[in-house]
Amino acid sequence: EGRETRLRVVLRVRPLTCTEQRRGDRRVVHSLGDGTVHVSAARHDATFGFSAVFDADASQEAVFEGSGMRQLVELAIDGFSCTVFAFGQTGSGKTYTLMGPLGQASPQSEAPGLLGLMQRSFACLLEQSRSRGTGLALSASYLEIYNEQVRDLLSMEPPRALSLRWSKTRGFYVENQLSVDFESLETIVDLLLQGSRRRRTSAHALNGHSSRSHAVLTIHIRSRTVSIHPTPSTCPSKQGTLCFVDLAGSERVKDTGSTGELSVEANNINRSLLALGHCISLLAKPRGKRTHIPYRDSKLTRLLARSLGGSGVTLMVACISPSSRCLSETLSTLHYASRARRVTTRP
């Protein structure tokens, strides 16, 4: 607590798709073990190191256990503000890593081994609550940032833009956002599915189910201790958050074939990711050499301000394709993630 802590950055390399294999794409990313990957291609020969690297054959469970996600859940219960966000090119496996295959988000699904970091974290949270004997009050909020507008994904009302405010005590927050209480794994998974179905997605040349917005699911955790002296009472003791951020994928319009509305969405996605990358570059500098961090440049950076440079504990999952055709975007993600490793917070 209060100590300078680096962002934990892990890398996940997805398998080559059937399309990439039929096309004859070469695999240009190779895991060397010990958290290191090597990129080998014409005019490109580079090695990158991370806290952990998960190759194409890594299971969802291995990513959960090896990324430090279980420890992040425990820290959130202990009152810390914890965030995990997935970053990478469109179609690189971000949503799969967080949620698993679409429609398989239920713990009772036919393929429980495919469940993502979110569902496994929910189960771990409720399991920890029972084993610790701590009374936890749990609630969830779920929003998306679409074309620089913040929308509530849990509200049953027609989509409308919500205001993003700032206060000295809360930092940046979303005004009038719905928060729903839950006590069971089934309830929170249902909320996740309901919200995800309302999220904006489209198909293009690189991804048949491309997320067109950044999505942020936040679990609010309030623990209570019971005092028996002098009279029995329950008093609030800790408040933590566990935040999951599924960033829309960076994309080149010429590669995706996007036109019209898709092109506008892509430009807004890339602009917000550029703002995020700029903030990370500045935060990666030593504290004495940092200039003003432009969190206000986008709605995304405002919402992530506390996670990136404030008092939070943050895990970044960088997702890449090993395909030779995606080399440029893969290198961009690797450099982006390498810079993020130098960012520090004071939880």
TrEMBL record:
Classification via InterPro entries: Kinesin-like_fam, Kinesin_motor_CS, Kinesin_motor_dom, Kinesin_motor_dom_sf, P-loop_NTPase
Protein source organism: Penelope pileata
Domain of life: Eukaryota
Gene responsible for this protein: Kif12
Annotated GO MF terms: ATP binding; microtubule binding; microtubule motor activity
Start and end residues of each Kinesin motor domain: 6-343
Keywords assigned by UniProt, alphabetized: ATP-binding, Cytoplasm, Cytoskeleton, Microtubule, Motor protein, Nucleotide-binding
Family stated for the protein in its record: Belongs to the TRAFAC class myosin-kinesin ATPase superfamily. Kinesin family.
Localization per Swiss-Prot or TrEMBL: Cytoplasm, Cytoskeleton
Keyword Transmembrane: no
Name of the protein: Kinesin-like protein
Gene Ontology biological process: microtubule-based movement; mitotic spindle organization; spindle elongation
Main location group: cytoplasm
Binding site for ATP: 88-95
Pfam families, A to Z: Kinesin
GO cellular component: microtubule; microtubule associated complex
